Amino acid sequence: MAYFEFLPVDKDWEEKARESNLDGVSSQWLSEMTNVNGNVEPVDFANVKLGQYYEVVVTTLTGLYRYRVGDVLKLTGFHNNSLQFQFVERRNTVLSIDMDKPSEADLLKAIRNAKRHREPLGFVLMTFSSYAGTSSIPGRYVLFWELKFKERNRCLKLDAKIMEQCCSIVEESLDFTYKCLREANKIAALELRVVKHGTFDAVMDFYVSKGASINQYKTPSCIQSEEAVMPKC
């Protein structure tokens, strides 16, 4: 048992802040606005609003510990007295090379847009993750895809041209900030790596070995640890 509260998340403000930062708005103004946005108080079940985004806050009955879960949800409706939410994204799971900070939802949308080039070849995307590669200058986004054919016992052969098209579509689908930084050569071209079957099982083993709960683990959309990336892919 636990007590649930909901911390309002202003998605429009976050997007405007990123664009304002890119346009040269003073860091002092951004700092002040961040503090204002950060002082929002959580609300209870009775005060949530339809269409609003929230981050879930949980208070346990044993010890009264308060946790920010990190999941951003959108209130989509009501069923009798129960709230109906749509999962949007995890907070703090963004790629960042420069001033860019695409969210998990941005990344999912971009990958889905590349689906029409992948599926006619019979490929199914099983799992994916990403990484902000900064070993070279400028840095770049790296996507890791685990693919398989819809038909069993068929050998996976990749067409380099199709993969390049997928990369282009993903980049075109990302936000205004990313496109500006790409044009200014502050971010290098996106890299797509197709990994062998079982790679993400190995990544899970890595995180479990570091103390993550196997019952609560889910593949991160953005890998922050270079140690988790390099030996596995």
Question: Can you describe this structure?
Answer:
The protein is an alpha+beta fold. The chain has 2 domains: 89 residues, no CATH class; 126 residues, GMP Synthetase, Chain A, domain 3. The N and C termini lie far apart (40 Å). About 8% of the residues have low confidence. Keywords: Ligase. This is Indole-3-acetic acid-amido synthetase GH3.17. One of its GO terms (molecular function) is acid-amino acid ligase activity. Pfam families: GH3_C, GH3_M.
How much of the residues is beta strand, in percent? 25-35%
Judged by helices, strands and strand pairing, the structural class is: alpha+beta
Tell me the number of strands: 7
CATH topology of the largest domain: GMP Synthetase, Chain A, domain 3
Number of separate domains? 2
Whole-angstrom Rg: 20 Å
Percent helix: 25-40%
- State the helix count: 8
CATH class of the largest domain: Alpha Beta
N→C terminal distance: 40 Å
Summarize the structure.
By secondary structure, the chain is of the alpha+beta class. The protein contains 8 helices and 7 strands.
Topology:
Elements: E1 2-9, H1 11-22, H2 27-38, E2 53-60, E3 66-79, E4 82-90, H3 104-113, H4 115-118, E5 123-133, E6 140-149, H5 160-173, H6 176-183, E7 191-194, H7 199-209, H8 226-229
Parallel strand pairs: 6-7
Antiparallel strand pairs: 1-2, 2-3, 3-4, 5-6
Helix pairs in contact: 1-2, 3-5
InterPro entries: GH3, GH3_C, GH3_M
Protein name: Indole-3-acetic acid-amido synthetase GH3.17
Family: Belongs to the IAA-amido conjugating enzyme family.
